[in-house]
Amino acid sequence: PMTRLELIERLRKALKDGRFHHVLRVEATAIDLAKKNGVDIEKASIAGLIHDYAKQRPDSDFINEIKQKGLNPDLLNYGNAIWHGIVGAELIKDELNVWDEDILNAVRHHTTGAPVMTKLEQVIYMADYIEPNRDFDGVKKARVITAANLQAGVAYQTKHTLNYLIANGKPIYPKTIDTYNAWVPQYE
Ligand code: DGI
Ligand code: FE
Ligand code: FE
Ligand code: FE
Fold first, then answer.
1. Residue nearest ligand 1's atom 16 by CA
2. Which of 27, 144, 179, 187 is in Cβ range 3.0-4.6 Å of 48 for a Cys bridge?
3. Where does the HD domain start and stop, copy by copy (predicted)?
4. CATH fold of 4-136, please?
């Protein structure tokens, strides 16, 4: 596997400047949340760095990967927002030689969440949402809630993201609904 510094060089090349700095902020936020929640710091660092590795790839790369790896064909009905995590994890295996399934699952679930998430997956899902440059209505509340209780943060993000998607007429990936049902009624 690559060292952190080798991964950083690969990410610098794969991403535009703004996105590159976002992943560095997600890494720092993930390390902070990992320390507070007893999560492996090394895995939080690597997962934070690589979570958006595939974000700027053309649609054709994802479509090829879905077909080649025999992923669920329903994925073809969605787009980059859904693909860059779930399908991005396959590109990461192919191209960055990261094979740790805990880290890959954190990448896979960083956009939609999942009904069952490890603490590492929760840390990456939340770090992506609250990294210091995020600026949306409710981000301050999201930071306060997440600092107090990681699982309550997951529920908060899941509820607000689904609300945003519906308000804007976006297609909802079924796993996003499953995540909502598993987390929001329980933690509200
Ligand atoms: O990649 P980032 O911008 O750092 O953040 P992200 O991967 O968490 O989210 C990317 C976008 O995906 C964000 O605008 C919310 C959106 N999203 C989350 N769940 C769904 C979704 N978009 C659609 N269409 N359907 C979903 O279920
Ligand atoms: Fe992302
Ligand atoms: Fe996110
Ligand atoms: Fe991100």
1. 81
2. 27
3. 19-133
4. Hypothetical protein af1432 (1.10.3210)
pLDDT digits (tens, 9 = 90+) for 143-165: 999 999 999 999 999 999 999 99
- Ligand 1 site residues (CB inside 6 A) read 52, 55, 81-82, 85, 110-112, 128, 161, 165, 170-173, 176
> By alpha-carbon position, which residue is closest to atom 22 of ligand 1?
81
Q: Within 13 A of 157's CA, how many CA atoms are on the CB side?
A: 28
Ligand 1: which of 111, 117, 130 to mutate, most ligand atoms within 8 Å of CB? Answer: 111
Is this prediction's ipTM beyond 0.95? yes
Q: What are phi and psi of 185, to 5 degrees?
A: -60, -35
Q: Look up the pTM and report it.
A: 0.98
Q: How far is the CA of 176 from the centre of ligand 1 (A)?
A: 10
DSSP conformation class of 171: P
Section 116-128 average pLDDT: 99
Can you give the pLDDT at residue 144? 98
Q: Which amino acid belongs to residue 105? A: N
For residue range 92-114, list pLDDT tens digits in order: 999 999 999 999 999 999 999 99
Q: What band does 35 get if pLDDT is binned at 50, 70 and 90?
A: very high
Contact 183, 160 (CB under 8 A): no
DSSP state of 75: G
